[in-house]
Amino acid sequence: MDSEEEIVKMADKLAIDQGCSKIKALSMLQGRYESERRLEEAAIVKRIIDREESKPEQTRNGFYNES
């Protein structure tokens, strides 16, 4: 089973490789875990996504959007 720390590292790498946001990368990982019936990891990813979505936009993306 992948730990939360390992999942975050995978999501960071996937976001860089795919050129997408961390939340999108986490969503992709969640889908993979669900399709593989790895429900504990899918639940961990869901908690991380919820935590990321609750962060202010500036800290999520590394920049501040003034719009």
What can you tell me about this protein's structure?
The protein is mainly alpha-helical. It has one domain. It is built from four helices and no strands. Helix 1 crosses helix 2 and helix 2 packs antiparallel against helix 3. The protein is globular and about 30 Å long. The C terminus is likely disordered.
Number of domains: 1
Strand share of the residues?
A: under 5%
Order of helices and strands: HHHH
Helix content, binned percent:
over 70%
Structural class call reads mainly alpha
Low-confidence stretches: 63-67
The general outline is globular
Largest sheet: none
Quick structural overview:
The protein has one domain.
What are the SSEs and their pairings?
Layout: H1 4-18, H2 22-35, H3 39-54, H4 57-61
Give the key terms.
4 helices; mainly alpha; disordered C terminus; single chain; 67 residues
